[in-house]
Amino acid sequence: MHPWIADRTTTFDASGIRRVFDLAAKLKDPINLSIGQPDFDVPTEVQDAAIEAIRSGKNAYSPTQGIAPLRAALKAEIAAKYPHEDRDVFVSSGTSGGLMLAMMAMVNPGDEVIYLDPYFVMYPALLKMCGGVPVPIDSYPDFQLDPDKIETAITPRTKMILVNSPGNPTGVTATEEQLEAVAKIAAKHNIALLSDEIYSQFCYDGPYASPAKHNDQTIVIDGFSKSHAMTGWRVGYVHGPSEIIATMLKIQQYSFVCSPQPAQWGALRAMEVNLSGHIDDYRQKRDLIAGELADYYEFTRPGGAFYLFAKAPIDSGERFVEQAIEKGLLIIPGKIFSDKDSHFRISFAAPNETLHKGIEVLKQLAKS
């Protein structure tokens, strides 16, 4: 290793998703069911708002906490859902930026953070950057949020419980009862509760539930990347107790500075856009892929997001993904999101024609 490289960078690897993309680079026209972003474009009115912001000179730094109109709109929406005495909000550089700021603001070296396995790839990497200790909770085979398992894992070093519902990579959505129980456990033990809600708009079988409803100290991270296909715009937001938010802002001043100002004006317009048509489309995509693969693979039917996490028909999810790539199908091995190598992730954020092609390949592989 080069002598200038910091030790902290050796505690985690580069994203395994990138390695899959490298493996598939030679494919001429892959059936791509790997990408974790919507296949629809940013709504036209959101594009127009950002263009207008650029052309009217709104191109400088914004305040670190975000432009005032967007913060005001977010505050009003949040206050209507959670009328807590002490809840502030700021605009982050995407939800990933929000996650990093949350870890930096709250996790000391040696602090333990509990989350489910499978998990979003950033969780253990960000924790290790801070010197934190990941405590993954095995949620196989059904990927449910089990409050008893969470409480059993708590030690004197536990600083935070991190929940993600609907989840990436499983698409499984926690019930309100499960989230309420975890919220009360966090309050009982005086542990931070961080809720990653980036897929909150993508709920197919009922209304969205947040632990913030049951614990007024919950820190919530959300954004516009998935809901409005604005993954490249880097506009997220974080809300929670004002002292936590102020600390995160202090770190943002010296790191991300602010979210891109023109994109924030686009996000302000995005708050007025009706997404029900897209959500209905994605519910149909979920129903299509889950219905077609139910007789071929073991999986828990996703209640949200746009992922299906299926068990490979052989003893290695990674080798199964290699077989799929040989047939032109791009999916992601489950071990990227887990300590286990038994599953693979499908993203159904794709045109229906692509989904049908992918389904046929998956059926062939299951029979072989």
UniProtKB/TrEMBL annotation:
One of its GO terms (molecular function) is transaminase activity. It holds the Pfam family Aminotran_1_2. GO terms for biological process: amino acid metabolic process. Residues 29-361 form the Aminotransferase class I/classII large domain. Keywords: Aminotransferase, Pyridoxal phosphate, Transferase. It comes from the Bacteria. InterPro entries: Aminotransferase_I/II_large (IPR004839), AspAT/PAT-like (IPR050596), NHTrfase_class1_PyrdxlP-BS (IPR004838), PyrdxlP-dep_Trfase (IPR015424), PyrdxlP-dep_Trfase_major (IPR015421). Its EC number is 2.6.1.-. It is an enzyme of class 2 (transferase). PROSITE patterns: AA_TRANSFER_CLASS_1 (PS00105). Its cofactor is pyridoxal 5'-phosphate. Belongs to the class-I pyridoxal-phosphate-dependent aminotransferase family. This is Aminotransferase. The lineage of its organism: Bacteria, Pseudomonadati, Planctomycetota, Planctomycetia, Pirellulales.
